[in-house]
Amino acid sequence: MIDDMKLKEVISNVLGVSIEEINDDSSPDNIEKWDSLSHINLVMALESEFKVELSPEDAMDMLSVKLIRMILEDVLKD
Amino acid sequence: MDSFNLGDSYREKFIVTNDVVNKFAEFSEDFNPIHVDQNYAKSRGYSRQVSHGVIQLSYLSKMIGMDFPGPGAIWMNQTVNWLLPVLVGDIIEIVLTIKDRSSSAKILTLSVEIFNQNNKKVMEGISQIKITENLYSQHNDNVDKPIDFSSSQDSNKYLSNRNNSTQRVALITGASRGIGEAIARRLSYDGFSVAINCRNDVKSANKIADSIISSGGDAIPVQADITSRSDIEKMSKKIFSKWGRCDVVIHGASPPIQPTKTEQVRYEDICLYLNTYLKGAVLLVESFSKSMINNKFGRFIFLGSSFIYGKPPQGMAAYVTAKEALWGYTKSVATDMAHYGITTNMVSPSLTITELTTEIPARVKEIEAMKSPVRRLVTAEDTAYHVAHLCADYSGYLNGINLPITSSPV
Fold first, then answer.
1. I need a surface site. Which of B134, B195, B298, B322 has the fewest CB within 10 A?
2. CA-CA distances (angstroms) from residue B270 to A19, B80, B265?
3. What is the CATH number of domain A4-77?
4. What is the ipTM of this complex?
């Protein structure tokens, strides 16, 4: 299981939004600072925080907080 | 054009009355006193007024346009040689005879002769007439006429298929669940009688038929293995003995969709899909097109997949190959059968959550939803609605398309 608090903290730090504002449906659609540039920073932060290596496809598919969690769970399981 | 033969003729009599001549003078402003003043005419040696020669051509115009060849005719050319004057009160007879016909140019050449009551020829000439054709509907005026939005009856027809000219019957394969079930329910809502096909799950098919009947619709369950010719023949007999017709065939049956690494795919894996999609479609067309041709109306709709647009997803070689083969068949049937009034189309939804797609990981579904510009997956009901649109009587001009239900350009 992914530590939900840890996930939200990473996102909050990289994207500059408060933890309370982050939920499963958070995505580039509703977080203004989540653009293609900050997405790379987010992916790098997730890799170092959760100690995983993500493929370029995985990184591209992280289109929402829910998807980030699903992908991290899959990668950690393998 | 085929109904006009060399030597065919048509004749009609007219009385050139005082009233006709005066009306013509008024309309054309040709008040030459030789036409309208009897004393003047006498002073020039005629017992009565001389009628305008063009009045004879006016009657000729009426005959060409209304009787022979009749409505739709275009008068292209005319030679006129007046031989004798026609006096007010004379009875004339106009005789048209076909002297030549060109079926390629669709032009008739007619001789024109006009006789007076003493059987003296007063005029002779040659007409050339173009026969125009209805470019809107070659086969079925009732079905394919364009919607007239100024008529409220027609705009109702556009809004709802419930006013189809005929009680339409639709067969939906793979209708015991998922997209097939949604299509059956939608078509029933739109006023179709529906045959609900399933391969094994008779219980579900019965349940759906019962629920449609209890909400006022007309439905029967029909069990058949779509890859078996004899099963399809039996199913067809059941439908025809119940309703006497089958206007629409929708082929949505599918095995469960299972991703497999392409290097592990065997030809037999592809055949599993190919048999249901392609063989099933061919057998359905074999069995149902004959009555559609007789009725000059039919709709074949094959379920495709958004996976056949552009780059396919990984691990779906067997499925994608079989759907692509079905698309090839769809295009050919569309090209070859549309002149019978039968349209053939494919409808290709993106990933839909049904029992067929339980093997596809949740993550893939979530990604698909987030990649959609409307940020959700397509539902079976979305697809059913657009299938129903293609089934309607008014959709006779949509043929050979692969309609993407993808929420984005493909």
1. B134
2. 49, 75, 8
3. 1.10.1200.10
4. 0.71
Per the model's pLDDT, the better-predicted residue between B45 and A78 turns out to be B45
- Which residues sit opposite B343 in a β-bridge? B299
| Cβ <8 Å between A66 and B371 | no
Residues B365, B310: contact at Cβ < 8 Å? no
The DSSP annotation for B132-161 comes to P--SS-SS-HHHHSPP-TTSHHHHHHHH-G
Where in chain A are the domains?
4-77
Sort out which chain A residues have CB atoms less than 8 A from B314's CB and list them.
none
Q: Residue B19 phi/psi, 5° resolution?
A: -60, -45
pLDDT at residue number B165:
61
Quote the minimal CA–CA distance from B362 to chain A in Å.
9
How many Å from the N-terminal Cα to the C-terminal Cα in chain A?
Answer: 13
Least confident of A35-39, B197-201, B263-267, B293-297: A35-39
**What does the pLDDT look like over A26-73, one tens digit per residue?**
999 999 999 988 998 899 899 999 999 898 889 999 999 999 999 999
> What angle, 0 to 180 degrees and rounded to 10, lies between the N-to-C axes of helices A65-77 and A4-15?
130
Is the Cβ–Cβ distance between B186 and B379 less than 8 Å? no
| Contact A69/B at CB under 8 A | no
Task: Indicate whether B139 pLDDT > 60.
Answer: no
The alpha carbon of residue B346 is apart from the nearest alpha carbon of chain A, in Å, by 29
How confident is the model over B235-241, as a mean pLDDT? 98
Distance from CA of B194 to the nearest CA of A (A): 40
Instruction: Check if A27 contacts B (Cβ < 8 Å).
Output: yes
Question: What band does B241 get if pLDDT is binned at 50, 70 and 90?
Answer: very high
- The per-residue pLDDT of chain B, averaged, comes to 92
- H-only helix segments in A4-64: 4-15, 36-50, 56-61
As a whole-number percent, the residues of chain B with pLDDT over 70 amount to 93
Q: For A28, name the nearest residue in chain B, comparing CA atoms only.
A: B370
> DSSP letter string over B347-363?
EEE--B-SGGGTTS-HH
Residue B158 pLDDT greater than 50, yes or no: no
Q: Would you state the pLDDT for residue B95? A: 97
Q: Looking at the complex, does the CB of residue A45 fall below 8 Å from at least one CB of chain B?
A: no
What is the structure's pLDDT at B395? 95
Angle at A74 between CA A73 and CA A77, to 5 degrees: 85
Q: Is B366 on the interface with A (CB under 8 A)?
A: yes
Q: What is the chain A residue with the closest CA to B365?
A: A67
Q: Hey, are the CB atoms on A71 and B363 less than 8 Å from each other? A: yes
